[in-house]
Structures are given as C-alpha cells and as structure tokens.
Amino acid sequence: MRVKTLVLRRLGLLLLVSSACTLHGGGSGLNVVVVVNQNSTNSVQLGNYYCEQRQVPPQNLLRITNWTGGRVEWTSSDFTNYLFNPLLSMLSSQQLTNQIDYVVLSTDIPYRVAQTNGNNSTTSALFYGFKTNDCPACQYPGCTLPDYTSNSYAGSEDIFRAVTQFSTNTNSFLVTMITSSNLAQAKAVVDSGVASDGTFPTQTVYLAKSITDVARNIRYRLFDNAVFDTRLRGNYSVQRTNANTPAGLGYMLGYQGGWMNPNVPTNIFAPGALADNLTSFGGQIFENSGHTVALAFLNGGASGSYGTVVEPCAYLEKFPTPQDYFYQARGFSLAECYYQSLMNPYQGILVGEPLAAPFAQPASGLWSNLPPDAQISGTTNLTVQFIASDTDHPVQQVDLFLDGLWLQTLTNLPPRPFNKLYVTINGYSTNYTVPANATIKSVASNLTVVLNNSSFTNATKVSAFAHGDRIELQSFDLGTPGSQIPISVSNSIGSATALTTFISASCTNFLDTLAYGLHNLVVNSSLTYPPPVNSWLLLTVTKTNGAVVTVGVTNAVYGTTIPLLVSNLVNQVNANPQLMFADGCYAEDFIDYSIHVNTNNHGAEFNLRARTYGWNAAQIQAALTGSSPLVFSITPPGTQPLQDNLPDLEPRNHLYVTAGVTNLTLTFPFNTTNRADGYHELAAVAYEGSHVRTQKRIAQMVRITNSPLAAAFTCTPCDSNTAVEATILFSVVANTNTVTRIELFSTGGSLGVVSNQSSTNFSVAGTNLNLGLHPFYAIVTRSDGKQYRTETKWIRLTGAESPFPLSIAAPLPAIAWPAVAGRRYDVLSVDVVTNTFQVRDTVTPATSAGQWADTNAAPTQRYYRVRSVP
C-alpha cells in the first residue's frame, strides 16, 4: 500500500428533497431484496435463511439463474446482465421500486466487477453505479481518486433516500454481501446481526493505531473525533489504542486497525460489531492476497466488515472512518453506518448483515380490536397505537403494508409551523420559530444559522455545525472548561395547534476533550541531493510555563539524507529530559517519504504530541528552523501551538432535532373492496422521528370477505417439516367455474400459473426452493377481475436427519417414528440379529408421523430398523 497525500474535507450541507417523497428509512425486511445464485446450494439456502430471520416478504427474493462463472470476478457486462438489469426488472414487476433500500447478495455471487478502465466491487457498483478509474500512467492503476467517485451520503446523518444523490435514483441501494468460506459461518453472520438489535452492548470499540505499519495507520487522525462524539452519546465505549492486532484486547464491540496481517481470533466480537482493517487487499476475500481479509473479522464474530478488492493506495476516503461507530451509537443500521463513513467506496466490498442495529430504539405498538384472522369487508375503520421508547425518540410516520407491499402512508408528523425551539448557552438565550414546510433537516440547518449569529456567538463563544438532524456545538473559549459551560434547551407549541418539534442536548454542560494536542512538521523534498555537510535542524519548544527547550541535530557526514536527519531529530526530542514531564511533548509518526510515498521524494514528516491531554496542554509552542537551504523546505514556518486537531480539543456538545409525538393512536379507514378476498397480512410500520428512522412493525392476519368467491387450497405432503427432495403437490379448487387464472406463489414469486380452469394441481420440486421455511399461497382470478387469496401454507424444507427413535405396538407389530413428510424411508427387519437386515418395504409419510405395520406372521422375535432414503 502506497501512502498518498490526503485532503480531509468538511462535508457541506445537502439539498433537501421534496416533502411529498415517501421516505421509509431505518430499514427492515420489508425494505430488503435478497439475491441468490440459483446454481449454488449455499447461496439459496443462505438467502432462504436470511429471509426467515429478517421476515423478508417472499416476493423480495431474486434468483440469478444462469451465472456459473465463479464467486470472485465478473465483467461489467456480466454484472449488468445477470444482476443489475434483472434486479431493476424484478423491482418493477413486483411493484417494489419505491420500497427497497437494501440489497443483500447471498454468497457465491462475484464480488469484483472488472472493466478495462477500472475495477469496482459488486456492492459499490450496486450502491451508486460503476465508477471508472482509468490511469494508464499510474504505477498502480487503482491509485486515483476521481471526484465523481464521491458519495454524498457520507457524513450526512440523513435518510438515505433524502440525499440529493439518491433521492430520485431508484437504481441505488445500500448493498452488502453475506458470505464466508462455509454455509454455517455465513449463517452465523446473520445470527450475529439479528441477535444484536436493540441490545445496547457495553463492550468497547478499539481504534488501533498500528505500532509498526506507517502506511496503514492513517486513520488515527480521525480517532479523537469519533471518541468525542460517542462519549457525548453516553451509551457507547470507544477507546484509542496502539496495536497491530485485535488479539489480546478481549471481547469487544468493534475494531479499526491498520496493519497488513492482524491476527483475528474467533469469538472476540459481540453481536453487531463493526470491524475492519485498512490494507490493500482486505476485500479479496477468496483470493490468496497475503493480507488479512474482511472475512476474518466476520469469522471472529463481527456482523460487518469492509475491504478493497484492488490496490487502492492509502487514500483515507476509500476506507471507513471511525465515525461509523458514532452512527451506530445513534441507532443507524450497519449498512447505513458503513456507507455514511465512506467518502469514495467504489473499490471496496461491504460484507455483513445490513440491518444490524444494536443501539436502535423502536417504539412499541399494537392493533386495537383486531384479533388474528378477523373478517373484514367494505370500508372498515382500523386502529393502531404506537408509544415512543422515550421522549427523545418520538413517532413521526406510520405506513401501512399489505402482504409485504407498501400501501400508503397513514400519517406523517413533520415539524409543525410556529412551534418554537429555545437554546440557552452559558446564560445567553436564543430561539427559533418553525416555518411552513419545514423538515427536521431544515430546522437543524436554520437553527444552526441562528446559533452562529455573530452577536450570539460573540457572547457564547460557541460555534455550531449542522450534520443532518444533529447540531454540533464547539466552544472556542480557551479559558473556560466545558464543564463550566451550561446549556439548556426546550420546545413549546408556540402559536401552532400541536407540538411536534423537539430539541434535546446530549449533556447539561459541554464535554471536555480527552484528545492530545498535535502539530505536524514537514521537511519537504525540494532538495534533490543530500543536504550539505554541517546542515542543521533546530526545534524550539516553549512549554506552557514559559520554559524554552531547544533540540537540534547537525549533518556531520556527507550523504546524510533529509529523512535520516529528521529521524535523528525525532530521537533527540524523545530523549530530552526536559520534554519528558507532563508539560512536555513527544515526537511520533515519523514518515520517510522515499519509502512510503515514492523513491523520488526525499522529504520526511513527524508529529509533536503533547504528553497531557486537553486543550490547555496543547498550548505548547513549537518552531522548526534549519540552515540554508533546509529552512526553505520546512512547513509550516514560524511558531505554532500543538493544535492542528483544534476541533478535537475544543469543548463540545450535541443538539438533536426530532419530530412527531410520543403517544400516537391512529384510526383510519381501510377500503377492502379493491383488494382480493381471502387471507392477508396487514402490517403497520412506525418510524422514529429522527434521521435514524428506526422502524417498529406490527403485523396481523385478516380475512377479507366482500364476495362469495373462495377456493380450497391443499397440499401433499403438507407438514410443517417436509423433505427437501420431495415433490409437493398443491391443489386449488375454486367455488366457481368463471375462473380465468390460478397462480401459485412462494419464495421468489410465482411458481406456476394456469388459465381458464376452476381447479388445478401444481407440483413443486423442493430442491428448486432448497432448505428453509417457505410460504405457499395461491391467487384465484375470476372473469370479472375479482380475486381470492388463499391461506398461506408454511412449509419448512429440511435436509438430512439426526438419528431418531422407533416405537413398536403389539399384537400386530406396528412401527412408528418421527418422520419428515415427503421423505422416503426403508423399513428393514431380521429374525436373527446377527444376520443381515433385509428391506421389507419403502414408505413415504405425508406427515411427521411415520408408520408401518408388519402384516406377515411374525416369529417369536423380530428386529426392525428404519432408515431414511436420500
């Protein structure tokens, strides 16, 4: 991995989308499409498993039917023809275009998209389109960072579909791949993500600065910001550490490192953990790259990880920032956390369970007076009730889904015009009145403008920065600790008719930093030859008590390079006894450009770090000078405090804007006359009133009865556990002869259709659907267009069995055993136990009760065995 010059940009505000847009957000199985490779048993079984665990509707599964080219790489045209176009077609045909935000790629789908002008990962190509990366002159073709590869969702703390780049683009998705070296381990990734939801784990996240690998530890400059933000959440533990590997750090919630080959033990990550490593080939998950790959972190128990599929060079923007842990602390899903922390993800693959949300706080909810299988007809009033988890997480929106398809938004409670928000900082107060057509984001943005009004800022000595629905406050008053800066916020109904706009603060006082002051010093490579003999560098340090310490080095031997001279200075600084006390500083992060940038660059750099954390300790002054011509190569010139990382040193607080109500009872008319008669699932989904948008889904089965149309729906075998090798026969018999269509559905959509018959049989080979829990139902269409939807038969297709017991009843020997419906069993017997058992009969039970009676006259004793037949 080659180090590149990094430009860290503060993200600007994003444009708003129309308030008329339906924004789902948060994420649940309703918003997921699962893609399986039908030619891979593991892919299909894992996809089925994910659908069951996340309650993904059956129509939300897409089968890739013709791909046989392996699981590593495909061409751009293959990606388009086998995945992208079929996905868009499926979304359109299933009426899911405006419902799906997440795509899960089940194992054995290629993870790299290859094109002559660059390689992308499959997950990123689905996320925001394939990005070319053509650089014929580059030593490493992937070592560019085109502007058009930027991701405007990064750092937004916004709803995915509200971001300008994605608001009208139904071709973009939050994509992850769930995979591993074996099916059991891939299922464990799913289990980890599902088990994490709402558990609020207390384990620590470790941000590891590599001890030995300068080229890969570049994320350390971002550690303190994430630590500061998560400290303000109060529910999340993030710590910096110096380590090459997570081994030895104990059981943890996450890990970010920077080393080529970290050792990742098994079972070291708590459910929901995000863990990754900044290295060149962490995304080459099934190739022998010589680097620790992302799957190692999943095998260690993490729910998600990330790595690049080609050499990216060490652009910080191509790797997740540690801010993803702050997003997780807020309650965002795993996929939202990662994509918000990736400025340029086009070369990286995201692996893991996308909906994992350990810190999500959903509301609670119930249907009122709607028992299971209630019969409803005409237009009927239905009532749901949702109660927010607390006052900081109000309920804003409720959507209605019918049989897994979005039907309508029942209510949406944006910030109410003329509500008022009040903020008092250090005794100085201001307020903001909500205008018409406001959104949570516009309120946060406009309130930030109010807080930055010069007269208010001059009084409070606080600057405000908007991040989606959050306002970050930073005190620039060096003389006042954060603990002495009180803040209070409140909201009122104002002249509005209801209060739906709220503001909260993370703390009642500003929080002080735990970061150490840093100052970067560079001796550039303007000299193309070693500096002259007797060239010197002199570092002058003025400590906070006024004491002045000087440290110098001289080039006494011709041929001494700039990096060697700078390295000698670093060693001298760290050996100086006057700088070893708490009020001193330390030299670290030495980089020899000729090694870590390119061989033609003769420069070097290092950081001065205060030995005591805090803003005041960072007021140590440092000046680096040198003899001519070295003096002209030194940046920055002059005397500077150790506060290059000033935003991480200033006292901080957060404000959050939310909208909605904490107790919502909603009665709405539901018109059943334009729906199919029969059995349906009604699901009401409530969304938390922040940009996290955590969902609460309450579902109830109902039966619509508006006409006499009905149909009998039976199957054989039809047990809750049925052999995967069985062929299941389904019978549909309508109660009328005026039928134009009967269609059978299950996982993945339609399984078959017949026309102009009032009754029919369908045969379904279990192997086509593979292991897992599958719903089966039929839709009957009458000649006038009226439809009937049958009840759903839930059948679990099962594989090989464990040993099972037999029971025998007399006097006629009747053998019974726990069976799998549809599986063939051989019944064997022998009269003398030392002889070979002989097959007496083969039976195929239609239920879970296997039975066979021996009608032949039996001798004094007979021995029996039963075995399943593959």
Write up this protein.
It is a single chain. This protein is of the alpha+beta class and 870 residues long. The chain contains 14 helices and 51 strands. Strands 15, 17, 18, 35, 36, 38, 40, 41, 43, 44 and 45 form an eleven-stranded mixed sheet that branches. A four-stranded parallel sheet has the order 2-1-4-7, sandwiched between helices. It has a four-stranded parallel sheet with strand order 9-8-10-11.
Protein structure class: alpha+beta
Task: Estimate the helix proportion, in percent.
Answer: 10-25%
Number of domains: 6
Task: Describe the sheet with the most strands.
Answer: 11 strands, mixed
Strand residue content: 35-45%
Shape: globular
The helix count comes to 14
Query: Rg from C-alpha positions?
Result: 32 Å
The average pLDDT is 93
Which regions contain 5 or more consecutive residues with pLDDT less than 50?
3-21
Spatial separation of the terminal alpha carbons:
51 Å
β-strand number:
51
Short structural description:
The protein has 870 residues and is an alpha+beta fold. The protein folds into six domains: 29-352, no CATH class; 364-413 and 661-704, Immunoglobulin-like; 420-513 and 652-659, no CATH class; 516-644, Immunoglobulin-like; 711-798, Sandwich (Immunoglobulin-like), CATH 2.60.40.10; 807-868.
Task: List strands and helices in order, with pairings.
Blueprint: E1 32-37, H1 41-53, E2 61-64, E3 73-75, H2 76-93, E4 102-106, E5 112-115, E6 118-121, H3 122-128, E7 174-178, H4 183-196, E8 204-209, H5 223-233, E9 237-242, E10 252-257, E11 269-277, H6 294-299, E12 304-308, H7 323-330, H8 334-340, E13 348-352, E14 364-368, E15 374-376, E16 379-387, E17 395-402, E18 405-412, E19 420-425, E20 428-433, H9 440-451, H10 454-460, E21 462-467, E22 470-475, E23 487-492, E24 501-505, E25 516-523, E26 536-542, E27 548-554, H11 562-575, E28 585-592, H12 593-596, E29 604-613, E30 621-626, E31 634-635, E32 639-641, H13 646-649, E33 652-659, E34 663-671, E35 677-688, E36 695-704, E37 711-716, E38 721-723, E39 727-734, E40 739-746, E41 749-755, E42 759-765, H14 766-769, E43 772-782, E44 787-789, E45 793-798, E46 807-809, E47 814-818, E48 825-830, E49 838-843, E50 849-853, E51 863-868
Parallel strand pairs: 1-2, 1-4, 3-5, 4-7, 8-9, 8-10, 10-11, 15-36, 35-44, 38-45
Antiparallel strand pairs: 5-6, 12-13, 14-16, 16-34, 17-18, 17-35, 19-20, 19-23, 21-22, 22-33, 24-33, 25-29, 25-31, 26-27, 26-30, 28-29, 30-32, 35-36, 37-39, 39-42, 40-41, 40-43, 43-44, 43-45, 46-47, 47-50, 48-49, 48-51
Helix pairs in contact: 1-4, 5-7, 7-8
